[in-house]
Amino acid sequence: MNMDLSPKFPRTFIVTEGGGYYNWAAADSEVLGEAKVAAGKLVLKPQGFALPHYADCSKVGYVVEGNCGVGLTLPANTKDKTAFIGLKKGDVIPVPLHQSHGGSQGHLAAFSPEFIARTYHANVEKAQKLANSQKGVLIIKLGQEEAECIPKPYEELVNIWTQNIDGASPDVQVNNGGKSTTLTGTKFPFLEEVGLNVTRLVLETSATRTPAYASDAQVFYVAKGRGKVQIVGLEGKLVLNTKVETGQVFVVPKLFMVTISADGEGLELVSIVTSTRPVTGELASKNSVLNTIPSSILQVSLNVTPELNQHFKRMMETGTTIVPPINLTMQQSYFGSITDHRFQEGCSAAPATRQSESELQ
């Protein structure tokens, strides 16, 4: 697989007085097309209003900042036809295929007045007004009176249709390192309808998320901060080694290993996996796939000393998937002493410093 995996900013789809919509389209990105996903960012200004429309695919939304209201069209067999939901920072809301969610691109206006008149049992004059009175496309700005007419959110629906991932109990939390929280169909049944799961990763200053992979493609959005990402492909080669910053999206193909580190201001990311129950694997911690390999086989495979192999296994047993900042100089000194020990046992006639350097390369 030889695709451009570099992080991307979105292209501008539309900007109006009420806000803007920006997207990462599958047609513009080979890796998004391969993963059969896309991404978008909706920005609403005060009194901004996204006109009702139908989704052409299942999706999930995450509120990066601010507050807003969303109307979801419910299945025909439900008592209420529309659920009005209030959203705040950190909320996750799934939107199943074809579900309407708060702009019409002029579908009515595309038909002739005669067909609209017959459809709604109106005369042609009224049909023309019905089709052509919209004052904008996708996003408009409401007047004060119009804004006050919008239905208020139903508080009791919040836990049914949305979950706040920012406030949820993290699956992993490390002092001075950060935290990771995942919403799956088990925790949030409504996610089952869109076939996705959502993870929020918060890395503190200079912390690292250790290498991991998923059985399905992962799409990451950088919600805040800066950092660095490395991706390793199926052939064990580094295919991406670059910096990321707020507002970018990058994709990790299925079964590719990814590791992420924050810089001095920390890093927050939200990611989706294109499955509600993906198979995942870790390269570190007690759940590492390497921990399933017998110690003797691992030592031979890595071609290391018994001492280094024991240290490696011990670090996996006690390590975590989020690593706080560490002093790499001290770590190198420790590994250097282990390789020197190996040299003294097996090759005492050669200069120790030279052997140590070759082991550390």
Report on this model:
There is one protein chain. It is elongated and about 90 Å long. It has helices at 30-35, 107-110, 113-120, 124-132, 144-149, 158-161, 295-302, 306-318, 328-346, 352-360, and strands at 11-16, 19-24, 39-44, 48-50, 59-62, 68-73, 82-87, 91-95, 139-141, 163-164, 172-174, 178-183, 197-203, 208-214, 218-232, 238-245, 249-252, 257-273, 280-282, 322-323. It contains ten helices and 20 strands. It has 361 residues and is α+β, with helices and mostly antiparallel strands. It is 24% helix and 33% strand. Strands 11, 12, 13, 14, 15, 16, 17, 18, 19 and 20 form a ten-stranded antiparallel beta sheet that branches. A three-stranded antiparallel beta sheet has the order 1-2-3, with no helix packed on it. The protein has a three-stranded antiparallel beta sheet with strand order 5-8-10.
Tell me, briefly, the overall form.
elongated
| Uncertain runs | 100-105, 337-361
Largest sheet: 10 strands, antiparallel
Strand content: 25-35%
Q: In angstroms, what separates the terminal alpha carbons?
A: 28 Å
Radius of gyration: 26 Å
Portion in helices: 10-25%
Supply the number of helical segments: 10
| Strand element count | 20
Based on secondary structure, the structural category is: alpha+beta
SSE series: EEHEEEEEEHHHEHHEEEEEEEEEEHHEHH
| Arithmetic mean of pLDDT | 83
